[in-house]
Specification:
The complex is a heterodimer of chains A (about 500) and B (about 250). Chain A contains 17 helices and two strands. With about 500 residues, chain A is an all-alpha fold. Chain A has a two-stranded antiparallel ribbon. The longest helix of chain A has about 35 residues, at about 115-150. By secondary structure, chain B is α/β, with parallel strands linked by helices. Chain B has ten helices and ten strands. In chain B, the strands form two sheets. In chain B, strands 6-7-8-3-9-10 form a six-stranded mixed beta sheet, sandwiched between helices. The N and C termini of chain B lie far apart (about 40 Å). The chains are: A mainly alpha (about 500), B alpha/beta (about 250). Chains A and B meet through helix 1, helix 9, helix 10 and helix 11 of A and helix 2, helix 4, helix 5 and helix 6 of B.
């Protein structure tokens, strides 16, 4: 821990009044507030997503801010609150984007088939679940064999590997058209998985078509979009679970490297997957039809900022609950956390799964906002951008992550042409020297951006985090020892 | 038969026998102690009881059920809580949160209730903070409830760690050198605090301590370890007069 200290715990939650009624009142009030904010997004969108009122350039920055808020806040859960250092957020976002984008292109006609999309996810998760169960059974068997003989798991694993290699090499020799002999299991596994998947799809198609036919026209597109977002997010959560489990023993730099590698694997897999468009990218139907003259109009603005709101609410509420306390305890001291009865594994994986879920939501939003997905957009740099947002916002602070996501999305655009942004605020004639120097900043914006980042990093710990620098501390308990007085 | 019983437990690290054939027990309402020179294996004994290490041989029984080889989480929930020789608080959490975390096992379920802030969640939270404040009050830490744990003075940190352990509602409390780094006055206070904990919370206290005066005056039974082997066991007076103990602490008589 750094020597800079915050004397007070931030956001100290006060217990509500003590009576049965007031608890109900508290629940209703706090959720009504969220619903009111969500409802407010619709009228705002009439302004924000309207090319006649707001320049599409500004609207796009606004939209990217919303998506980046979802990303940064969800990474804050993993990196800040749970204290693990993940560099793989772009990977989770890619999973969400492609798994929300692919079914929309392959199984849906212009986002009008909620039944077909739902069927795709059901088939996918049933298939994945079966594979998972089989793998789990295999591992359970390997573990059990240890009872018979200590070296048995290793031997069995080696035998399995040998069988696998033999199987593959035999399959390569069997000429096509002959039909593979029945003992070749491994080489046909992928075919079985595929046929199982299509079997479910075929069985379900009539039911899905019936559902789609009976839904009101105006409701079909939003429902499809919601299903796509949730489905993509669930896929990302599965990815988060898969990386969360094996990397539990890693921490610090090692965990960062592992997550980075994992997200690169995702990117490379996408780059080589035929149905996902390989390196050429994937064109995805766009949700918003504003300006096309169609009726009814669908806007994506409420979805983006609704997702930002729901993400923030979820992660803030999680942080300020028994679960969040447990996650923070694991961050502070794993051994002590286990000694007071906190299941460390559960809470570390939970943080990863929920963080990845919302990264997937951000991916799905991006896919259907932008309409085009390219694997290179989800590379290492994208992960770093989100990590920078979280770090600059301050580790552990949800509000800091939001502020940093907004500022750091806007800042490069501001530096591109500072004069025009100032022109929005004031129409007054600026002095000549100021116009010139602003133009100079615009020309060297990458330098200016890096300098600003360095400046913020010098204020160690970011703007709002639990490692807030001394000059940003404004609340101190009377009589408490000053920062630095106690060794930590 | 005592509630927590360690039966012939050995711990080996490669060729090193850190703990050999160790047997001891503690019952509810008792105060017992484990002493011995540095490196005798005292903390190893605590670590093996709380599940940090797995015993190489022997068994540990809590209330008739074997707990050896189980995870630290399981053992804590079964009713054994501990403190650490080098204080392990959740430094960047508030003093109150440090204690409230101990109640956590009754709040494990209900992710949806947490996210929707259901009335049940709100009631439980209020209840937790009330109970946490009560617990802090018994330890005189209540005025400092909002401070971050790392900003507490040393003695308060020691007491907070004991409070956190008690929050998990244990039957047996293991204290690893609770008096380390305390002055004589603080040690006096600690002694009365330990007796108070035993009476108020009805727990059995098992402590590791170097301070002979403290150990002799407070404990009912004492075990002495040296190089992982038990060299004496009995009441404070018996142990004090045992020549092997004197030898271990002072060296062979000339």
């Amino acid at each position: 821990m750094t020597s800079s200290t915050t004397t007070l715990q931030e956001d100290f939650p006060l217990p509500p009044q003590r009576s049965g009624k007031s608890f109900w009142f508290y629940t209703l009030r706090t959720n009504a507030l969220v619903l009111a904010l969500l409802a407010l997004l619709v009228p705002i969108s009439w302004y924000a997503e309207n090319p006649d009122r707001l320049d599409p350039y500004y609207a796009r920055i606004l939209m990217l801010i919303g998506i980046n808020v979802v990303l940064a806040v969800s990474l804050q859960l993993i990196n800040g609150i749970s204290g693990q250092f993940s560099l793989g957020h772009a990977g989770f976002m890619a999973v969400g984007a492609y798994m929300a984008g692919y079914p929309a292109t392959a199984y849906s006609n212009e986002l009008h088939d909620p039944g077909a999309v739902l069927l795709f996810y059901v088939a996918l998760f049933v298939t994945l679940g079966t594979i998972g169960l089989l793998l789990w059974g295999l591992f359970a068997l390997l573990r059990l064999s240890r009872r018979a003989y200590g070296g048995a798991p290793l031997l069995l694993l080696l035998a399995l590997l040998a069988w696998f290699v033999w199987d593959i090499s035999m399959a390569a020799r069997v000429t096509t058209g002959q039909g593979a002999p029945p003992y070749l299991v491994w080489s046909r596994l992928i075919v079985w998985i595929q046929s199982g998947f299509t079997w479910i799809l075929e069985r379900g198609t009539p039911a899905a078509a019936w559902v789609d036919g009976h839904l009101p026209e105006a409701g079909r597109k939003p429902v499809t979009f919601l299903l796509l977002l949730l489905g993509g997010a669930c896929c990302a959560a599965v990815a988060g679970f898969l990386i969360g489990l094996p990397t539990l023993r890693l921490r610090g730099d090692y965990l960062a490297i592992a997550t980075l590698g994992f997200s690169e694997i995702i990117r490379v897999v996408i780059t080589n997957a035929e149905p996902l468009g390989r390196a050429t990218g994937l064109s995805v139907p766009v949700y918003s039809n504003v300006g096309s003259g169609e009726s009814p109009e669908f806007r994506i603005f409420p979805w983006v900022f609704g997702a930002a709101l729901v993400t923030t609410m979820t992660i803030w509420r999680l942080q300020h609950s028994a679960k969040g306390r447990a996650i923070a305890a694991v961050r502070e001291d794993e051994i002590a956390a286990a000694a007071v009865g906190i299941d460390t594994t559960h809470h570390k994986v939970l943080a990863f799964v929920i963080g990845a879920f919302f990264a997937g939501v951000a991916g799905g939003l991006f896919a259907h906002y932008d309409g085009y997905l390219n694997p290179n957009a989800f590379g290492f740099i994208r992960s770093i951008e989100v990590v920078v947002m979280v770090t600059i916002g301050g580790l552990g602070s949800v509000w800091g992550a939001i502020a940093a996501a907004a500022v750091l999305t806007w800042l490069p655009e501001f530096l591109r042409d500072p004069g025009s942004w100032i022109g929005i605020v004031t129409s007054a004639e600026l002095p000549r020297w100021l116009v010139d120097s602003l133009a100079a900043v615009g020309e060297n914006r990458m330098v200016a951006y890096s300098l600003l980042l360095i400046l913020i990093m010098l204020a160690r710990g970011g703007a709002f985090g639990f490692r807030r620098p001394s000059f940003l501390r404004w609340r101190r308990e009377p009589g408490a020892p000053a920062a630095g007085a106690t060794a930590s | 038969m005592p509630l927590l019983e360690v039966q012939n437990v050995s711990v080996r690290f490669g060729g090193l026998r850190a703990l050999g054939d160790f047997s001891f027990g503690v019952d509810v309402g008792e105060i017992v102690a484990l002493i011995g020179p540095n490196g005798a294996g005292k903390t190893t004994a605590f670590n093996v009881i709380t599940g940090v290490y797995r015993p190489t041989a022997g068994q540990i029984v809590l209330g008739g059920k074997r707990i050896d080889g189980r995870s630290p989480v399981h053992i804590n929930r079964a009713g054994v809580a501990r403190t650490f020789q080098n204080i392990r608080l959740f430094q960047n959490l508030s003093v109150l949160d440090n204690v409230v975390i101990g109640f956590n096992r009754s709040a494990e379920r209900g992710l949806l209730a947490t996210l929707l802030r259901s009335p049940r969640f709100a009631r439980q939270r209020a209840d937790f903070y009330d109970r946490g404040m009560d617990l802090l009050r018994t330890f005189d830490l209540q005025p400092k409830a909002k401070l971050l744990a790392k900003n507490l003075p040393y003695g308060d940190q020691r007491r907070l760690e004991i409070a956190r352990a008690l929050a998990t509602d244990p039957k047996i409390l293991l204290l690893d050198e609770p008096a380390a780094g305390m002055n004589p006055q603080e040690k006096q206070d600690l002694m009365s605090l330990i007796r108070f904990i035993r009476d108020r919370f009805g727990v059995g206290v098992w402590l590791i301590e170097h301070d002979m005066k403290l150990v002799m005056s407070i404990s009912q039974r004492i075990t002495v370890l040296d190089h992982g082997e038990t060299i004496a066991i009995g009441s404070p007076t018996e142990v004090q007069e045992n020549p092997k103990v004197i030898e271990a602490y002072l060296g062979e008589p000339v």
